[in-house]
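Researcher: Please translate sequence to C-alpha cells.
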Amino acid sequence: MDDVIYDLLASGPGVRVHYHHDLQPRVDANLARIPGRFNPESKPRGSLAIVGFGPTLQDTWLNVVRCDTIWTVSGAHDFLLARNVVPHYHTDIEWRDHKVKFIHQLHPEVHYVIASTIAPNYLERVTTEQVSIFHIEQTGGNAVLPKDALTVQPDWDVVMSVLRLAAAMGFKEIHLFGIDYCGRIRDGAIAAGVHHGIPKALIQMGLEGKVYLTSTDMVEGCWHLPKVMGQYPDIEYFVHGDGMFSHYLRARLGGQYANQRIISRVEQTLACIE
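Model: Translation complete:
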C-alpha cells in the first residue's frame, strides 16, 4: 500500500517547508507582538481530540465532546463553535496569508497556539490574550529561535505539529476527527465547510476497492502521519470517520494505529447543523 501512494508522487515523500528563505524579521516581529510562549508542563492528561476540517467531520463531530480536551486546526475551529462546541486549543502554522480566512470568530475560552512563522495578518485577526507562540525547527529558513518556547520538528502539515505538541504535554490517548486527506466523490467537497485554501489539482485514487478524491499533497499527508504517530508508541490512537486516512491505516497497518471500530455515520448530524 505504501507503494500505491508513493507512485503518485513524482519526487517521493518529503518534508514540506512552511516558510520562505528570509524568515527572521517575521519571527522577531511575531515574538515581539505576542508575549505568551507555549511551554506547557508534561503531566498525565485525559483523552484528546485533534479535529481537522475534512469532510467526515460532518458525520463525526458529535463524538468530539466525548474527549476531555479538544484541539482544532484549520476550519474545524469555526465549524465547532458554530455548533456550540468550544475547543480548548487551536493551532495554525501556515506562513502564507490565506489561513486567517478560517477564523471568523474568536472565543475567550480558546487557547490559540500559533507557530512563530505565522503570517502577520493572522495575528491581526487573532487579538485575544489567549495566544501563545511555539516554534518549528528551521530546515529551510534562517531564523534564530529563542529557547523560551516549545520547539517541534518540521512536518508535512499542522496535524503533525499538534500531535508533537500533544505528546510533549503528556497526552496518551488521542482521537483524530476530520483527518481524512481526501474529499467526497459524490459532491467534490474537500472539507466539512467552505475551504479557503489554495486550489489543488484533484485526482481519484483507488484503495482496496474504494475510490477517494484526493491530491498529491493530501496523499503525502496520509503517508507521513502514521510515521509521526509511530514515533510515540506510548500513545493510543483512535481514528474516527471513513476517509482515506482511516482506510489506509486499516489496510496497510492492520489496525496498529487505527481503531477497528471506526465510528459510523451519525444520522442526526444534519439535523444538528442548523
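Researcher: Any highlights?
Model: The CA atoms of residues 61 and 177 lie 7 Å apart.
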